[in-house]
Predict the structure.
Amino acid sequence: MTLGDKLSRLRKENNYTQEQLADVLGVSRQAISKWESDTTYPETEKLIRMSELFDCSLDYLLKDKVETDNKVQTDDAVVLFRKHFREKKSEKTLLGMPLWHIGKNAKGFVAVGLNARGIIAVGLKAQGIISLGLLSIGVISFGMMSLGLLSIGIFAFGILSAGCISIGVFATGSISLGIISIGAIAIGDFSVGALSIGKYLAIGDNARAMIALGRTEAIGSVFQKIGEPTAGDYSAVKELLDTTVPSYFSWAKDIIKLFL
């Protein structure tokens, strides 16, 4: 199988027309046609770009005796992406980046791809100001594993985080760990949850902290209350927060006091 035969087969397998592949590579459709008919040969730079685009080795492209690609087995996500998306890029740029880019390794103000980086990024791995992905990193981040200032995901890590397992300054989730933590199982300096474990304050069915308010069980080293707290209990808790919480957590104490 010649280089032209391989290029033609790979192009069709990845659902590209000659025009579309030419647009991605920055060449004319006639150049693609000549490559596939073995009339001319691509430059080394274009060969490398196509090996990345089609996820194949240069050996496979260049050596006639290599009839099967020796790449690792492509996973289902890559196959699905290739089947439904072709690499496309905006001709307009800003600060050297295209306004939008769709591709395996997409980079643009709006980026969609397996690996996406942009102001708005969507992909299996996404990095951006606003990001959505299996692994998502951004200022505002949504994903199975999410890291950001505002983070939402199965596993969420951030200043404000929400997820099945959530870690952050403000954390809420099935299992949450944070300075202010809300969840079925909540662990933090100030915790609210069915099982609530806190350093300074814990509120829940089962509460354990210096100040513990529990419906069924409360263990507190400074103050504890089992059952429904009264107005007097809340007043006592507020006074105790003022005396037990260090000054560097005064902002968290003030937030908690708003809800007592």
About this structure: The longest helix spans residues 231-244.
